[in-house]
Every structure is written in C-alpha cells, then in structure tokens.
Amino acid sequence: MKRILALGLIVSTVALIAVGVITLYDYNLSVGRMWKTPAIKPHEKPIPVMAAGSVPFTGGEALYRAATAETITPPFALSEPAAVAAGKIAFQRYCLQCHGPNVDGYGTVGQSFAPPPDDLRSAKIQSMSPGVLFKEISYGIPDGRQPALATTMTVEERWQSIAWVKSLGVRN
Ligand code: HEC
Tell me: the pLDDT tens digits for 62-77? Predict the structure, then answer.
C-alpha cells in the first residue's frame, strides 16, 4: 500500500512539474498564442457602413484581375505620407497576424504556414515592383500560401499596404 502511495505521489509530482514547465513556456513565448486574441462578440462594435463606390460600374476589380503585373501601376505616389500612414493601419488589419508585428514573418497565425510568410523587408521583396506585389496580395501566389485578399481589402487599401511595406526599406 505504501509503495502504491509513494508511486502515486511521485507520478503526480512529475505531472505537476510538467504542467508547470509547459505553462511557463507558453506564457513566455514571444510570438503570442491564439488564445490571447481578444474575442469580439457580434454587435459589440458598430457594423461598418459600406463605402460609397464599393460596387463599381466602371473599371474596378475585373480590370486588375485581367491585367498583367507589368502593366499595373499605383493610382497615387507610393511615397505619399498619407498613403504610407494609411498603409500601416491596413497592414495591422490584414497582414500582421501572419507577417508579424516586425514584418519578419513571425506572426501568430503565420507560424503555422509552410512555407512561412516571408520577411517583407528582405531585399527580394523590397525590389519587387508594386504591380507584382499588388497582384500577389490581391490574387495570391500560384501554388503558394499568400492568401488572395482581393475580396477582403479595397483596391486602395492594397496599394496603401504596399506603400507602407516599401517605405520600410531593406532590413539592415
Ligand atoms: C493568412 C496569412 C497571411 C496573410 C493574412 C498575409 N500573408 Fe503574405 N504571405 C503569407 C505566406 C504564408 C507567404 C509565403 C508564401 C509562399 O511563399 O508561398 C506570404 C508571402 C508574402 C509576400 C511574398 C511574395 C513573394 O513573391 O515572395 C508578400 C509581398 C506578402 N506576403 C505580402 C502580404 C501583405 C502586404 C499582406 C497584407 C495585405 C499579407 N501578405 C497578408 C501569409 C499571409
């Protein structure tokens, strides 16, 4: 009986230590965990009102979709401070969860991708043309993991996020 009790004590002590170590590891993980995401219940925030012109009857998405990346150019200068500032907000809304707060691919959701999201400040991505970036962000990468965000982001938001990413330059 004593043996069983001693064994039980040892097993539960080891189990307690294991749970403690795992909990400590989880709390100190620098990249964040899914369960730390704030939950927003329906109607906690006002329902966004659809912007005027959301449903185009001239131009619009279809033209971008059909065009080749080389022929697509931004509708405004990407260096415009207003575009860069708006792009930072767009990035936080639509890209951060995967590409991470440091734009290095270390986002909470991004970690579960193979290949993982790219460092958007790499020389490769910083030297890509705005048209190519726009196409990839809008319609995804063939056989790749970048999600097609054309139905999630407005055309303007996509260009703005490119403006912000470009403004960061190559990481030293
Ligand atoms: C659901 C996760 C996710 C979101 C959201 C996301 N990305 Fe990505 N992104 C990825 C992954 C994964 C890759 C790597 C793709 C691959 O190589 O197949 C990637 C790759 C890229 C690339 C590199 C493309 C290339 O040709 O190498 C760029 C640029 C990029 N993302 C920009 C963005 C921008 C800007 C946003 C927000 C507007 C965004 N991504 C949102 C997951 C995401």
Answer: 889 999 999 999 999 9
